């Protein structure tokens, strides 16, 4: 991030009230060369991009939030009314996205509730609207899948641990990597941490597995309801029981504070469990039957 153009681009994206920025607006500011800068920041894990827009990852918010957003010596935290305006923008965008699937008032309630859940554990409030946009979108996607109107039929798995920073993230990343489009994976924590465990992120990246959730998410009921299989790891009775769901508990060691070799062993343990689960669900074929 020594390139001043990238610093400015990242600042623009992180300051966007909706939590994302259209690529054409970035191009107006810095020309067609924006694409190479965006690609570099995506590769570095600072941005996520689709065909038309980019958004900062949680890692970017944690690592560069204060530096990028407060270059002149510190700005005050946004007043609640500033966040309220951002939440209105987020709600309108999600209302358009889920038009005919989720009622507008329900969308607004989910956006506000998602904001409140994240705000209750936030140490830095500046980027709460951006995080809220992604969290609310995930929850609404789960709600839409309950109606059967999201257009896709796949195996649904929810991985839950206490902090949603290690074990459940490992399991989710492996399930996405192995199962691909044949499985829909969600992840949450009963008491989510502020960010992903850096040792876990580093080891998965070394294995070429980068299907991580951007930030630890609180456990919510509609996400459980939308999942056919719920896998818990160390969270005990914190996960509500929803009738008709399959619950599996994996006694897996928490990687927090573990050595690099221990983290690798935990990843391999979870990999074996994930492969067995995906075979049981018919997502992949057992090695002896291929």
Automatic annotation (TrEMBL):
One of its GO terms (biological process) is response to arsenic-containing substance. Keywords: Arsenical resistance. It comes from the Bacteria. This is Phosphotyrosine protein phosphatase I domain-containing protein. InterPro entries: Phosphatase-like_N, Ptyr_pPase, Ptyr_pPase_sf. The keyword rRNA-binding does not apply. The keyword Cell membrane does not apply. Residues 155-280 form the Phosphotyrosine protein phosphatase I domain.
């Amino acid at each position: 991030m020594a390139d001043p153009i990238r610093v400015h681009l990242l600042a623009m994206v992180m300051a966007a009230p909706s939590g994302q920025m259209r690529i054409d607006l970035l191009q107006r500011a810095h020309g067609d060369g924006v694409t190479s800068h965006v690609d570099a920041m995506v590769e570095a894990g600072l941005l996520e991009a689709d065909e038309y827009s980019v958004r900062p990852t949680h890692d970017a918010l944690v690592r560069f939030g204060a530096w990028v957003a407060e270059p002149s010596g510190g700005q005050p935290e946004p007043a609640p009314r500033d966040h309220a305006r951002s939440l209105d923008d987020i709600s309108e965008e999600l209302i358009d996205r889920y038009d005919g699937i989720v009622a507008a008032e329900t969308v607004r309630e989910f956006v506000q509730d998602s904001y409140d859940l994240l705000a209750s554990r936030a140490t830095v409030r500046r980027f709460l609207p951006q995080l809220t946009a992604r969290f609310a979108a995930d929850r609404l996607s789960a709600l839409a899948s309950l109606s059967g109107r999201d257009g896709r039929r796949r195996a649904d798995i929810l991985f839950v641990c206490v902090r949603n920073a290690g074990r459940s993230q490992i399991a989710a990343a492996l399930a996405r990597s192995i199962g691909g489009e044949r499985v829909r994976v969600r992840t949450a924590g009963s008491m989510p941490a502020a960010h992903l465990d850096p040792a876990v992120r580093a080891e998965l990246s070394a294995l070429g597995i980068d299907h991580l959730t951007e930030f630890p998410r609180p456990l919510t009921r509609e996400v459980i309801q939308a999942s056919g299989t719920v896998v818990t790891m160390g969270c005990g009775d914190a996960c509500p029981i929803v009738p008709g769901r399959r619950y599996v508990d994996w006694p897996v060691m928490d990687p927090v504070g573990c050595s690099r070799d221990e983290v690798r062993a935990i990843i391999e343990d979870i990999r074996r469990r994930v492969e067995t689960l995906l075979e049981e669900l018919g997502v992949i074929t057992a090695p002896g039957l291929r």
